[in-house]
Amino acid sequence: MASVLYSTPLQTPVGDMVAISSEIGLCALEFELPVRQKLLNQRLAKWFTGAEVRAGSGHRLPTLSHWLEAYFVGRFPNVGSLTLDLRGTEFERKVWKALLGIPVKSTATYGRIADDLGIPGCARAVGSAVRRNPMSIIVPCHRVVGSDGALTGYGGGLAQKKWLLEHEGAYPQEAARISTCL
């Protein structure tokens, strides 16, 4: 019997999103944008081979809903309260773990993350792994900025990235100061 993934649409202050959960945990929180949905579908086909995607909340949605509600009112809950099912290459998972180490009100650069992972000069590889992050907002890829502190690409769009950083208190005052706690 193939595994089942549950897909639930969500409306957030930064746009429409979809949450996907497996029997193990939450495996995606992605923007409802064509390019992001295409990448999500490719990831699901690769990492959840043969899984049937069903509309419905599964048993993870109440916890996610509470987490997102707290986040969007400015309480910034710990990610540890969520059960995640993050699947990717070993390198992608290392980068995503590094993203989880960037605290609220802070930013990090792709180069700094590469340095902290022991692969100096590999900012582009880090950027590629950040792009493949299936867990928007929760695994905070929006906290990664360019080497000069400028906002760079974000799957949900730069306006959403700016909104999230302002909401967290990391922009514009803090955006120029690059820090990391990895």
In short:
This protein is an alpha/beta fold and 182 residues long. Helix content is 35%, strand content 16%. It starts with a strand and ends in a 14-residue tail after the last helix.
SSE run = EEEHEHHEHHEH
- The unreliable regions are 173-182
Name the average pLDDT: 89
Number of distinct beta strands: 6
Q: Number of helical segments?
A: 6
Strand percent estimate: 15-25%
**Radius of gyration over alpha carbons?**
16 Å
Class per helix and strand makeup: alpha/beta
- Principal-axes geometry comes out as globular
Query: How can the largest sheet be summarized?
Result: 4 strands, mixed
Give the helix level as a range of percent: 25-40%
Distance between the termini: 40 Å
Question: Could you describe the 3D structure shown?
Answer:
A hairpin with a 4-residue loop joins β2 and β3 (26-31). The radius of gyration is 16 Å and the shape is globular. Helix content is 35%, strand content 16%. The strands form two sheets. The protein has a four-stranded mixed sheet, with helices on both faces. Strands 5-6 form a two-stranded parallel ribbon. With 182 residues, it is an alpha/beta fold. α4 (110-116) packs across α5. Residues 173-182 have low confidence and may be disordered. The protein has helices at 34-47, 61-72, 90-100, 110-116, 123-131, 158-168; strands spanning 4-12, 15-21, 26-31, 52-55, 108-109, 144-145.
